[in-house]
Amino acid sequence: MMAADRRPKTRYRRRLPEPAGRRLGRDLTGLAAAARPVGVVFRRELGGYFATPLALVFLVIFLILNGILTFQVGAFFERGRADLVPFFRFHPWLYLLLGPALAMRLWAEERRSGTIEVLLTLPVTPTQAVLGKFLAAWCLVACALALTLPMWLTVGYLGEPDHGVILAGYLGSLMLAGAYLAVGAAASAIGRSQVVAFILAVAACFAFTAPGSSPVLGFLGDWLPVALVQPLAWFSFEARFAAIIRGVLDARDLVFFAGTIALFLFFNVVLVSAGGRS
Amino acid sequence: MAASVSPVSIELHRLTRRFGPLTAVEDVSFTVTKGEVVGLIGPNGAGKTTAMRMASGFLQPTAGTATICGADVRARPTEAHRALGYLPEGAPSYGDMTTAAYLGFVAGAQGLRRGRARRALDRVAALADLGPVWRQRIETLSKGYRRRVALAAALIHDPPALILDEPTDGLDPNQRHEMRRLVTAMAPGKAIIISTHMLEEVTAVCSRAVVIARGRILADGKPRELARLSPRQTLDDSFRTLTQGGRRPEAMTD
Questions:
Q1: Which class for B231: exposed (0-12), middle (13-18), buried (19 or more C-beta within 10 A)?
Q2: Contact call for A121 and B60, based on CB within 8 A
Q3: Residues 6+ apart with CB under 8 A from B201
Q4: Using alpha carbons only, how large is chain B's radius of gyration in Å?
Q5: Residues linked to residue B18 through DSSP beta bridges, in sequence order
Q6: How far is residue B87's CA from residue B186's CA, in Å, rounded to a whole number?
Q7: Which one of A29, A248, A271, B63 is most buried, counting C-beta atoms within 10 A?
Q8: Which one of A43, A113, A122 has the shortest CB-CB distance to B81?
Q9: What is the pLDDT of residues A12-55, one digit of tens each?
Q10: From the CA of A53, how many Å to the nearest CA of chain B?
Q11: Burial, A129: exposed, middle or buried (Cβ in 10 Å; 0-12, 13-18, 19+)?
């Protein structure tokens, strides 16, 4: 009885194109298979950060600098307002230095030690390797940000902040960090010198940050037409991030950061494929 | 795996590589089949490493192709690299990792998981005798151990094709002997290329020798045949005549 029931169904299924569910399943399986090498590289890289004092130094310096900037420079208490603007507003400048510092070893070190030859002759594509390394650095920044959550708790205890704005601030800060790291990772893939990678990355990050900051914009606005100053602000990490932390979470800003990350990771893949193998 | 359907082989087809005005490798072709151990020999700067880098897919050739077990290393790199165990020059590895962590990483990258990865790790640990340094960071190891870790990494997925760039460099005589024994033991099921400076190694482990100098192949044959090319009938002599004279064996025997 059961068998008789099943037979027509089988025939029916064969005549139709593959069911969407199964196709989705196969696509997901393919995606998982493609993601596995990314995970392998990610774990190695994250382990590499923690195997050296780098991760610890980064976390400690990040927290100390954040503390100084928030409480001393940002006058967190004196402002008498329950928000985290004084905490977030210095993040672009913090990442400007710490992002490249974290990213500079990603590829330059591989080239210097020759391990790039091992990595690129494993069944791992340059794209997978680039993603794995970038995500490891990004994950470390996410850990650092997570360690600042007591700031949120403090503000919540002292007053009644807009938690949505703070959440947007954290999200924005993470995207911002990703953009700086992607720039740093691409710079790291240029050569075997970490110092050169760091300097190039800081210079590039500065170009993405400074033009949008209000003092620079004000200065430029004095003697440049608005039509020229406006596009500069459009490219600026700082100006976009400033809007996010004030609570204006515009999808376009997030897309901008995601796009910047994707663009520089693409450069990174090109540099790794060309420099490592050509 | 690609290897099970395609013949075990490494094919170099007219590989050429130029760095600016310098031609490092010119028109190098040879095929290594299952059971063969080909010794790539030549003076320093002959182009051995460049040729092996192109064969492994790390370096893009200016012209020509390399194929590992039927998969072009540039067109189908993932497939080719699954079938390949490659020990680069200088045997690099991540110094900040322990032996176990590094081999675990390579096993993972080769797609081995859980039980299979554990068995592979056990196998290469025994093969390269890594027990004593299993939990040590690689940067603290002696040169010999570092090289064995790198070799173990190349062997972890038991690949049908092996390209080993100077595998015995920096090893003491006992370790060299072990390495040769290992290569000889693996030879029947694999296609192997090793490069070396040491000619006695060629006689000991290679079924075929390819002499390369100034980027070109000067001779390709069984070690014994190559030895016959010189008046004194030693491989040493043939090597010197070939590489210093830079002439082809035909010219020399005239």
A1: exposed
A2: no
A3: B39, B168, B176, B180, B194
A4: 18
A5: B23
A6: 15
A7: A271
A8: A122
A9: 555 566 778 888 888 888 888 888 999 999 999 999 999 888 99
A10: 11
A11: buried
SS3 state of residue A210:
helix
Report if residue A30 sits inside a domain. Answer: no
pLDDT, one tens digit per residue, over B163-217 is: 999 998 878 888 888 888 889 999 999 999 999 888 888 888 999 999 999 999 9
Place A196 in a pLDDT band, splitting at 50, 70 and 90.
very high
Distance, CA of A167 to CA of A28 (rounded, Å): 30
Residues of A with Cβ-Cβ distance to B69 under 8 angstroms: none
Chain A, chain B: beta-carbon pairs less than 8 Å apart: 77
Comparing A247 with A227, which gets the higher pLDDT? A247
Q: Are A49 and A140 in contact (CB under 8 A)?
A: yes
Provide ipTM, 2 decimals. 0.90
- Please give the span between the terminal C-alpha atoms of chain A, in angstroms, as a whole number: 65
Q: Into how many domains does chain A fold? A: 1
Query: How many Cα atoms occupy the beta-carbon half-sphere of A61 within 13 Å?
Result: 15
The position carrying tokens 């700082």 is: A238
**Residue A223 domain-assigned (yes or no):** yes
Domain limits at A102?
A: 37-277
Angle at alpha carbon of residue B147, lines to B45 and B114, rounded to 5°? 130
DSSP B22: E
Is position A227 within any domain?
yes
Contact B59, B53 (CB under 8 A): yes
DSSP string for A73-100: IS-TTTTT-SSSHHHHTTHHHHHHHHHH
* Segments of chain B assigned E as strands: 9-19, 22-33, 37-41, 63-68, 71-72, 84-87, 161-165, 191-196, 208-213, 216-221
The DSSP string of B69-118 is TTEETTTSHHHHHHSEEEE-TT----TTSBHHHHHHHHHHHTT--HHHHH
User: Does A19 fall in a domain?
Assistant: no
In 3D space, the residue among A210, A212, A145, A130 whose CA is nearest the CA of residue A175 turns out to be A145
State the best of A112, A113, A115, A118 to mutate against chain B, taking most chain B CBs within 10 Å. Answer: A118
